[in-house]
Amino acid sequence: MQIRKAAEADADFLLREDKHIVPEEIRMLLSRGRYFLAQQDGESIGWLRWNLFWDNTPFLNMIYVLEPFRRSGIGSALLAAWEAEMRTAGYSMVMTSSLSDEQGQFFYRKHRYRAAGALLLPGEAAEIFFVKHLK
C-alpha cells in the first residue's frame, strides 16, 4: 500500500468517488494539496481530505476507504501520513469531528484525539469535535 498527496492526475477517481462535496471544491482542494490518497497495486482505494479551521488549524474533513479495503489499516495509514505532514509544516495541533452516533469517533479516540466540544443542530446527533496535539 502507498500513501501520497493526491495530484491532478487523481481527479477522475476523486470526482467519481468523493460524493460529499461539489466537483469545483474537489478541484480546488486538489490544487491546494489537501487530499492524501491511498493506493494498492496502483489502484486508488481511499482518501483523506482536509482544510483549515479558523484559517489556521488543520481540520480533517474526511477519511474514506472503499468498502472492500476497510478494516485493514488504510485509514490509520492515511491519518498517520497527514499528521506527519502537518507536523512537518509546523502545526502543533490538528482537529476533526464525528457525529456521536457514528463509529468514526472511536477511530479518532483510538488515535489519541480528545473530545473538545460539540455542536448541536436541530434533528441531528451531536457533532463531537476532537483535537490532537502534535509532538
Quick overview:
The chain is an alpha+beta fold. It contains 4 helices and 7 strands, in the order E-H-H-E-E-E-H-E-H-E-E.
Would you give an account of this structure?
By secondary structure, this protein is of the alpha+beta class. Strands 1-2-3-4-5-7-6 form a seven-stranded mixed β-sheet, covered by helices on one side. It contains four helices and seven strands, in the order E-H-H-E-E-E-H-E-H-E-E. The mean pLDDT is 96.
Identify the notable features of this structure and list them briefly:
135 residues, seven-stranded mixed sheet, single chain, alpha+beta
Count of individual helical segments: 4
Strand content: 35-45%
Helix content class: 25-40%
Mean pLDDT: 96
| Structural classification | alpha+beta
Strand order of the largest sheet: 1-2-3-4-5-7-6
General form: globular
Give the strand tally: 7
Low-pLDDT parts are none
How do the strands and helices of this protein lay out in sequence?
Elements: E1 2-5, H1 11-17, H2 23-31, E2 35-40, E3 43-53, E4 57-65, H3 74-88, E5 93-99, H4 104-110, E6 114-119, E7 127-133
Parallel strand pairs: 4-5
Antiparallel strand pairs: 1-2, 2-3, 3-4, 5-7, 6-7
